[in-house]
Amino acid sequence: MRARTMVSVAVSACVALVACACGPEKSKEDTDPKPSQPSASTRSEEPSATPSVSARPEKPSAEPTGDQPAPRTKEGAIQRYEQYLHALGREDIDTVCEVAGPAAKKAQEQGLGPCTSTYAVVVQMISPAQKKALQTATVDPQRVAVRTPDKIEMPVEAVRASATFSESDLGSYTLEYLKNDWYITD
Predict the structure, then answer these.
(1) SS3 of 86, please?
(2) What single-letter DSSP state applies at residue 157?
(3) What number of CA atoms fall less than 13 Å from residue 59's CA on the CB side?
(4) Going by DSSP bridges, is the β-strand pair 181-184/173-178 parallel, antiparallel, or unpaired?
(5) Are 170 and 143 in contact (CB under 8 A)?
(6) Strand 173-178 to strand 151-154: parallel, antiparallel, or no bridges (unpaired)?
(7) Distance CA 99, CA 136 (A)
(8) What's the rounded Cα separation, in Å, for the pair 72 and 68?
(9) Helices 3-21, 115-124: inter-axial angle, 10-degree rounding
(10) Which pLDDT does position 138 carry in this prediction?
(11) Residues 165, 157: contact at Cβ < 8 Å?
């Protein structure tokens, strides 16, 4: 993610956090259990409707399978970027930070927080319709620019989704081939 985009997102996130923090404070009454809460026997049925930690392995891994390096091709970069987009839509911060780690590290060095806390705020600023669209987004290979065999530009215009994204809400990215995989570096 470009540093200025990351700074813009962080400033927006800080404004949102400050605005939320200025809301009504919770009193002791708000935190006490209410009689309308479901009983323990009802709550035991809830985990089947809500994904649990044990359901996490179902998500695609950010790591290349086995010890095989990721393809050092335009198609390999597109596949990795789509993995990032889908993870962003699912709010899978671990995968997002795995793919965007080098760019997030640069942003952190410029004063932003760690990747996990920064993206936790970022995903809250994405509309539900955009999140759903990101989960199935694809990339138009015709719009992707290969700068060098190890450096590929993914303009926001290359993202094909059921929602519209702009430079200000998604941005354009540079992926570089590092340590046998593609990573967002800018």
Answers:
(1) helix
(2) G
(3) 23
(4) antiparallel
(5) no
(6) antiparallel
(7) 17
(8) 11
(9) 70
(10) 97
(11) no
149: which DSSP letter? T
The pLDDT confidence band at residue 17, using thresholds 50, 70 and 90, is very low
Q: Give the CA count within 13 Å in the CB-facing half-sphere of 114.
A: 5
What b-and-e string marks burial along 151-162, b requiring 16 or more CB atoms within 10 Å of the CB? bbbbebebbebe
Among 33, 143, 29, 14, smallest CA distance to 81 is for 143
Joined tokens for residue 24:
């009504």
Q: For the whole prediction, is pTM greater than 0.70?
A: no
Q: From CA 81, how far away is CA 165, in angstroms rounded? A: 15
> Contact, 156 vs 135, CB < 8 A?
no
Count CB atoms within 10 A of the CB of residue 146.
Answer: 12
When pLDDT is cut at 50, 70 and 90, the band that residue 169 belongs to is: confident
Residue 48 tokens, joined? 């089947």
According to the model, what pLDDT value does residue 135 have? 97
Helix (H) or strand (E) holding 9: helix 3-21
For residue 124, what are its two tokens? 């809250």
Based on C-alpha coordinates, what's the Rg of the chain? 19
> Under DSSP, is residue 147 helix (H, G, I), strand (E, B) or coil?
strand
Tell me the mean pLDDT in the region 78-102. 97
Work out the average pLDDT over 156-170.
93
Tokens 């026997």, located at residue? 41
